[in-house]
Each structure stands twice: as structure tokens, then as C-alpha cells.
Specification:
This protein is α+β, with helices and mostly antiparallel strands and about 220 residues long. The chain folds into two domains: about 80 residues; about 120 residues, Histidine kinase-like ATPase, C-terminal domain (Heat Shock Protein 90, 2-Layer Sandwich), CATH 3.30.565.10. It is built from six helices and seven strands. The strands form two sheets. It has a five-stranded mixed beta sheet with strand order 2-4-5-7-6. It has a two-stranded antiparallel sheet with strand order 1-3. Strand 4 and strand 5 form a beta hairpin. The radius of gyration is 22 Å and the shape is elongated.
Length: about 220
């Protein structure tokens, strides 16, 4: 790409594609479980037609399993809907802690596939900043993807958002202390382009085994 804008756009499309693919896989898994439960219900119904008694508790268990999966699918779709709407406006007032929870929910499957657990720490009070929500989610995802590959032996990454004098700090703790988990390894062209667009700063604290993102309280007008 020839410009920073092109790099941000290309990175954003890849990010949207990765999340969309992951969500579609999750929904397919839910549908597979519901389909399996429906098949078992049909088998039990045939047994009753032949005069074989069926345990009502088994039917109740299957119905509860289906209801649980429907609730799970509803949560997945709600998260995807919120994610899609994050691109509605270039600048929005967002609760950083709420955004972190959303990104973790969207990335949970991808982390689990690599044997990594994602968690959050800190109070639940809103931490409001004005920024581009889609680009920020993209940057958090890139940092998470890097951290998942650089996770330490505990296999757990902990994200914590805190208020600062100038805005907010988001840390991702749980990376190993080694050169392959360094700042130079993390900051490629996509990360640098997003940092510029968000007016943010990013560093890797090898001693503290964490990635630290500094965000302004107000991104200001886009040019």
C-alpha cells in the first residue's frame, strides 16, 4: 500500500473477515448441536409410537440443551451486531472497558483454539474516551493475536483498562519475557498505521510481561 490510509483500510478488511469467519463457525457449531438434539428427539418420539416408554427427564434435558444453544446463538449474534455497528461513525464516545469485553467475546474462539484463556481485571465502572471504535478494536485484536503467540507458560492473558491523566491505558499481561515478545516484533506496518490513526502509543514491557497501549481521551477530528 502506498499510503497510511490504504494500510489502515486493508488491515481493517482482514480484521473484519477474521472476526466474521470466526462468528460464522461458532453459529455453525450451535446449529450442529441443535440439529443433533432434534434428531434424538425424533428417535425418542418414534420409540413412544412403538410403545416403548421414554423417560420424561431425558426429553426435558434435550429441550433445555436446545434452549441453551439458542441463548448462546443470540449472544453471538448480538456481539456481531455490536461489532458491525462500530464502523457506523468515525468518532464515537465509547466505554473502553465495555469494548474490551466485546473484543474478548469475539476473539474467545480463536484464543481457545490455541489453548489460551482471555480474562479481564479492574472495576466495572465506565471508562469513556472519544475515538474510532472499529480501528481501536482492530488494534486490540492485533495486540491480542501477537500476545496469544507470545503467551507465557500460564497460558492466560489478562486485559485491564485504567484511566490516566490524558486518557486511558490498556494493558495485556501474561506474555513471556523474551526477544520474540519485544516491541520491535509487535510493531509492524499495520500496527503503526493504526496507532497513527488513533493518536495512540504502544510499548512492550518485557520485565512486566505486558503490552501497554496509551490512548488519548479525545482522538480529535479526523483529517
Amino acid at each position: 500500500m502506498t499510503t497510511e490510509y490504504d494500510m489502515v483500510g486493508e488491515t481493517g478488511l482482514k480484521f473484519f473477515g477474521r472476526i466474521s469467519a470466526s462468528v460464522s463457525h461458532e453459529i455453525k457449531n450451535v446449529l450442529a448441536i441443535i440439529n443433533e438434539s432434534a434428531g434424538l428427539m425424533e428417535d425418542l418420539a418414534e420409540l413412544t409410537q412403538r410403545g416403548t416408554p421414554v423417560d420424561p427427564e431425558r426429553m426435558k434435558s434435550l429441550a433445555q440443551k436446545v434452549k441453551h444453544q439458542i441463548k448462546r446463538a443470540d449472544g453471538i449474534i448480538n456481539n456481531m451486531n455490536r461489532f458491525a455497528h462500530s464502523a457506523d461513525e468515525a468518532l464515537q464516545d465509547i466505554d473502553l472497558r465495555d469494548m474490551v469485553r466485546l473484543v474478548l467475546a469475539l476473539c474467545e474462539r480463536l484464543a481457545t483454539m490455541r489453548g489460551v484463556t482471555l480474562a479481564t481485571e479492574g472495576n466495572g465502572n465506565p471508562l469513556v474516551i472519544r475515538t474510532n471504535p472499529f480501528l481501536l478494536q482492530n488494534l486490540i485484536w492485533l495486540c491480542l493475536d501477537f500476545a496469544i503467540q507470545a503467551v507465557d507458560e500460564a497460558k492466560t492473558l489478562v486485559l485491564m483498562a485504567e484511566a490516566t491523566e490524558k486518557g486511558a491505558q490498556l494493558s495485556i499481561g501474561g506474555i513471556r519475557a523474551s526477544n520474540d515478545a519485544s516491541e520491535d516484533a509487535l510493531l509492524g506496518a499495520p500496527e503503526k498505521a493504526l496507532l497513527g490513526a488513533l493518536k495512540a502509543e504502544l510499548s512492550v514491557d518485557i520485565v512486566g510481561r505486558q503490552i501497554v497501549m496509551m490512548l488519548p481521551r479525545d482522538r480529535g477530528p479526523l483529517r
